[in-house]
Amino acid sequence: MLDDGAPLFTQIAERLADQIADGALAEGERVPSTNELAAYHRINPATAAKGINVLTDDGLLEKRRGIGMFVAAGARERLLAERRKRFAERYVQPLVAEAHRLEFDADEPVTLIREASHTEEGIRP
């Protein structure tokens, strides 16, 4: 179900974006309609439409007149590129700055990451 905190339309947009990024919704595939989303999440159809419009405005969804909304060509690649950029800004840049303050050599953070990845499931070395 939807979480507390973020506006409902934002949560709808994020869930659909996650499905596109994960490949659960492929390019050219039809996404649930505003009425389907509204019924499933028990929200106002206008709220669901606002979430879909966020993704349409971002170029991730496209409307096909009379048949619905579909995942746009290249949507997954654009999402992954944006998420990689955010990942670098949120995690890698602060890590590099802290490693510099601690006077690590260039290989030490990489070694630590590799060691940590061996202890975490689902992360490839």
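The record above closes out task 2.4. Task 2.5 opens with a second protein, given below.
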Amino acid sequence: MTILRVLSTHLFLNQRLHPGLLEMAGRAGAQAVEIFAARQHFDYTSREHVMELAGWFSENDLTPFSMHAPLFPDREMGRAGAPPINVLHPEKSRRIDAMDEIKRALEAAEHIPFKNIVIHLGEKTDSWSLRTIEYAETALEHLGAFARPLGVRVLVENLTGDPTTPAHLMTILEMGHLHDVDVCLDLGHAHLTVGVDEAIATLGKRIGSVHAHDNHGLKDDHLWPGEGTIAWPAAVKALKALPAPPPMVLEVDSKFGAVHDGLMERIQQAFDLLG
């Protein structure tokens, strides 16, 4: 069974997202894209930018499959001091600000018909506790209620911190009865933590999409699949064995998108490896 091939525009994170990059994605074999909502890349607060991309999608076959929620509210990914977007922050005002920023990005779905939004829960240093569960459930309920009328499903991503291990994500979803929320399985993050096999087995049918990138088990490098130590044939086989094999989102580091020579061929090779 074939898996939908999706390219994350994270590859072009340091460039303004424009139709030329989307056209390149299509020529490289992508059937769909995941738009990374970072203001310097895709300014979801700019009606002009939103409508530019909406017009392109309406006239082309490439599908806007998903959006990755913003991680910072500024154009510099926090380098100028802006705090990260954290829906698990101990301060209520920070949690509210975080949800408001994600909702601003979600509003783009009124014009760009993406069907999923990928959300991070907390930061690497956040701990696991009953309060963490409460904050996570509240955020996912609130964002889900906002996303649902827009036709968007919320996908929560496994990260490398305690609140977002596969087992803890399942606890949050089950305790909160969050039946409309599924998981974006990040294989690179799983490889750094519990392992890819265990992550797939734990999350199972709740896997709504997959972030595909590689590393050597030491740091979150976002390498091309095959350049690290993930056992890709076994991972792809396990994902295809699920009742509904999830779309595979190629999410490699933006440094690889800085040089366009040979880039389309490299994307095609990665998709071929991913099945």
